[in-house]
Amino acid sequence: MPTARSSTEPGPTGWVDAVADLRHLLRFRAATVRRPRAAGVALLVLLGVTLVAAVGPLLVDGSGRATFLDDHLGAMLAGFLALAVASSMASGGGRELIPREQAAIHPISHRTEHLGALALAPLNFAWLLQAWLLLGITARVTGPDGWVGGQVVVAAWIVCATALAQVLGWVVETVRRTPHGVAVVRGLAVVLVTIGVGLQATDRLLPLLDASPTRVLADTVTARDGALPVVLVLVALTAVAVVVGALPAGVALRRTPREELKVESGSHPARPLPASDLAVLRRIDRASVWRAVPMRRGLVVLAVGPGLVALGGGMDWTQVLVLPALVISGGALLFGVNAWCLDGRGALWRESLPVGPETVFAARALTLAEWLGAAALVTVALAALRAGVPSATEVTALVATLVVVLLQVVAVSMSWSGRRPFPVQLASARATPAPPIVMVGYSARLAVSTTLTAMLFSSAAQAPAWWLVPALAVPFLVWSAVRLRRARRRWLDAPQRARVVVAVAA
Amino acid sequence: MNAPVIDVRGLHVRFGEVEAVAGIDLQADAGHATALLGRNGAGKSTTMRVLAGVVPPTAGTVLVDGVDVALDPVAVKRLVGYCPDVGGLVPRATPWEHLQLAARLRRLDDWEARARDLLERFELGDVAHRVTSGFSHGMGRRLSVVLAALHEPDVLLLDEPFDGVDPLGVEATLAVIEDARARGACVLVSTHLRDLAMQACSTAVVLRGGAQVAAMDADELSGEAGADAYRALLD
Q: Which residues of B touch A292 (CB under 8 A)?
C-alpha cells in the first residue's frame, strides 16, 4: 500500500542533511568492518589497479596509434551505460547502505538512500572491470598526447553514466511496485532483450551503439582536444541526474515492495515427506533459495544475459566455453559466498535437530551446485542455438569446464561461508550476502580464477589431442575436492560450526 | 532418588575473549519445570544452547539424561525439544515444512495429527502453508514452541517462549509445559517474565554474570516479596 509523504522528510534544503546522513552511515559501515586493515589494503589495491589501467597502456608500444578501438570507443562508452542500467534495475534501484531491517528504525530519507546506492555502485566487480577497461582503452587510444583530457572525459562519463543508470533503476523500481508493475517490467525486459538480440543477430547492434550520443565523447577523446567543455557538460548532467534520481527514489521507497512481500507471504501446499534426511534438508534449502527475490532475479539475469549475448553474437563453441565460468562465479555471489545465511535466525533451531553435520553440509553444497549448474546450463542452451553442432572434443571441453568450474566455485564458496559468516536476511532485492567491500573481494577472486580456468580449457579444446582437456581437468578437480573437504572438516568441528550458526542467527 | 535429567557442572562457554558462561552448576529433574532467570547477558540463552547441543561447552560437564553433550550431541538432540530465544524459524519455509523437517529427522511416525492439533492450539492452523518470513514476532514464537513440543521430548527447553506472545498464546504455551511436566519430561524455561515463570515452574535458578547465584522453590519468588527477593539477587 502506498504511504503518504512523511512530515519528517526533508524539503528542498534536505540535500545538506542527506549528505550529512550519508557521511554518518558510511562512517557507521566503516566502523563495522571486521578487518579494517584488510579493507584498507583492498581499497589501496583497487586504486592501484585503477592507476595501472589508466597508465599501463601508455607504456606498451603502439599507444596513440589509430586502431579499431578508435572507431568503437563510443559503442563501449554506451555499453558501460547499458551495464550500469542492468545492474541498477536488477538490484531494485541499487544496493543498500545498511540492511532494510536495520534501517527501518532510523529516519533515513530517500535522498540519503539514493546517494548511498550511488556511493555503493562502484563496489561491484562488473562495474570496476568495465571502468578499468574504458580507462585502459582510452589511454591506448590517446597515447601520451591528450591522455589527461581523455582520462578526465572518460572518468566523468563513468560517473555520469552511473548517476543516469541510477535514475533509470529507480524509475523501473517505481513501476515495479505498482499493482501490475512486476508484469510490466518483465514484459518490457523481454521486449528490450528481443530487440537487442535481433539487432545483434543482424549485425546492427554495434553500428547502432557506434552512432549513439556517446560518439561525441569518443570524438573528443580521439581528437585530443576540447575536453574541458565536455567535462563541464558531463558534470552538469551528473548533478542533474543525482537530483532528479531522488524523485523516483522517493516514490519507489514510499511504495510497498510488492514482489518481496508476495514472496514473504506466499503459500506453498504440503508435499509428501521426502524419503531421506538429505532429501528433506535439500528441499528446505531449495525453498530458501528459490523463494528469495534477489536470488531469483539475479539468477535470471545471470543465466539469460550471457546466453542471449552469445545467441545474438553467434559465438562459436570455443567462445561459449568461457560463459559457464562467468555465470557460475556470478551465481555464487547471490548467496553461495555466505551459504549458511539461508537459514537466517532459524539456524539455531536447525542446528538442534538430530542429524549429522556432514548431511547438512552435503545438502547445502548440493543445493548450491545444482543452482549454479542450472544457470550455466541455461546459458549454454541459449548459446548452443547458434553455435552449431559441437565436435566430440568441444563437448568434452564443455563438460570438463562445467564440472571443473562448478566444483571450484562450490569449494571456494563453502570455504568462505564457513570462515566468514554474516547475518543477512536476503529479503530485499537490494540486499547482498556480505558487506559491499567484502563482495568486491569475493567477486574479483572468483572472476579471475574461473575466467582463467575457462580460458585454459578453451585453449586446450583447440588442440588436436582429445585427451588434453580431461587430463587437464584432473588436477583442478583434485585441488577443488581437497578444498571442499577442508571446508567440510571445518563445518564438522563443533566449535567452528557453533560460531557460524550463532553468527548467521544474530 | 533418581539422577537429575539435566546435570550441568562447572560449565564454561567462551566466544573468543568473551566468557558467556562462567562456571554454572545446574540440575533439573524429570517431571519438573524449572525457571532459568537472570538479567540480560547472565548466560541463560547460552546455557540453553549448550543443553540443546547447538553450542559445545568450552569446559565443564553437561549431561542430558545421562548423555554427555560434548561426546554425543546428536543423541542429546534426539532427547531435546528446543525453542531458541531469537527467531528460530527458517525465513522462507512454511510451518508445515518446518514440521516435516523435524518429523523426518526425528524419525516420527503418525506425527501429522499431533502437528495439526498443536498448530490449532496455537492458532496457527490457517497459516500452516504460509512462508514464515511474513509472520509477526508472536506468531514466530508460538511456532517455535510447537516445533519444540512436536515430538514430546524428554527434555523441553523453552528460551523466552512468552516474549511478545498474546494471552491465548501464553495459555497454550503454559498448557504445553504442563503436559510435558505431567508425562514426566524435564522442562527448562528461560524468561524475563517472572510471574509467568512462577506460574509455569516449580523451581527457579537465578544466574548472574554467567554464574548461578541461587536455586530455590518457585514460591519463594512469587508475589511482592518474591519480586523484592529476585531484585536483590540481580544486583
A: 92
